[in-house]
Every structure is written in structure tokens, then in C-alpha cells.
């Protein structure tokens, strides 16, 4: 699928200068930028959906961990004293 995009002259000049400095085509540079943007926004949306699902689960069950419990567990990551995730509670 071919898509065209109109950009102002200043931005076009900046893209061209960056493409030259990276020895890359302007199309490749723009494709890379769009791909990175879409990946970042997809990750942001996934995070948001996971947070909303977690909130709904909490409202239904009341199960949770406190911030202190989570931080204490995370401090063990990568150490010889690494522990399993603590149990959620009401």
C-alpha cells in the first residue's frame, strides 16, 4: 500500500539533512520514524489496557499488593536472595 505524506519545507529539509548524515534515504528514515512511533504507541496502549484490566480485577476481588511490598520484592530480583512474587491480599 502506497501512502503519501505532506510535510512543510522546513521539516523536509531537516529530514533530508538527517538522512544524508546517516547515509540513509529520506524514505527509509521516515519509515523508521513512523515504525518507532507506532511501536511506542502500541506499547503505551497495551500498558493502558493492562492497567484498566488490573483496576477492574481489583474492584472485583479487592486483591492487591502495596507499593512497599512490590518494591521489597523487586529489590530481590537478580540477587541470590531472589524471591517469588508475594501473594496478593485484601
TrEMBL record:
Pfam families: RHH_1. GO terms for biological process: regulation of DNA-templated transcription. CDD domains: RHH_CopAso-like. Gene3D superfamilies: Met repressor-like. InterPro entries: Arc_rbn_hlx_hlx, CopG, Ribbon_hlx_hlx. Residues 2-41 form the Ribbon-helix-helix protein CopG domain. SUPFAM superfamilies: Ribbon-helix-helix. This is Predicted transcriptional regulator. It comes from Xaviernesmea oryzae.
Amino acid at each position: 500500500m502506497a501512502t503519501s505524506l505532506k510535510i512543510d519545507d522546513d521539516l523536509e529539509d531537516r529530514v533530508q539533512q538527517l538522512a544524508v548524515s546517516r547515509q540513509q534515504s529520506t524514505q527509509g528514515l521516515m519509515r523508521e520514524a513512523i515504525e518507532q512511533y507506532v511501536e511506542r504507541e502500541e506499547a503505551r496502549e497495551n500498558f493502558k489496557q493492562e492497567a484498566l484490566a488490573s483496576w477492574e480485577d481489583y474492584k472485583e476481588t479487592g486483591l492487591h499488593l502495596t507499593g512497599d511490598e512490590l518494591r521489597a520484592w523487586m529489590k530481590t530480583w537478580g540477587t541470590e536472595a531472589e524471591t517469588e512474587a508475594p501473594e496478593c491480599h485484601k
